[in-house]
Amino acid sequence: MLADTSWGLGGLDRRRVRVRHPQGVKGGEALRLVVQSYREHDVVAGRPTPYARPLASAQRAVSTDQLRGGIQLDLVHFDGEGDDVVVIAWTEEGDADLDFDGLEARPSRGSHLAAVEALHS
Description:
Blueprint: H1 2-6, E1 12-20, E2 31-39, E3 43-44, E4 47-48, E5 56-62, H2 64-69, E6 71-78, E7 85-93, E8 112-113, E9 115-119
Antiparallel strand pairs: 1-6, 1-9, 2-5, 2-7, 3-4, 7-8
């Protein structure tokens, strides 16, 4: 679907990242990992500002063991005219069942923030 809707359009950007939480997280084995990218000015103290809109998002069902080792994924979005991009990730209890692949999700105060490393393609 992406190829059909983006044919003839320039400026697609892919960010390959690894998300990990070395100590793991407390809670059940059923965790939802949400990963989003934002323009740098839309993130303060590691969290998106109230009206910030993600450039891209992804969600995955993960276990604490997978988080310790790291989970690799790609975020695809339209390139924003030289804006610096920040990627944030967090886990919540539950399955990967958010609408729009987690695009409208926001980390709650109880969410466990994870480290995000940029990988070279």
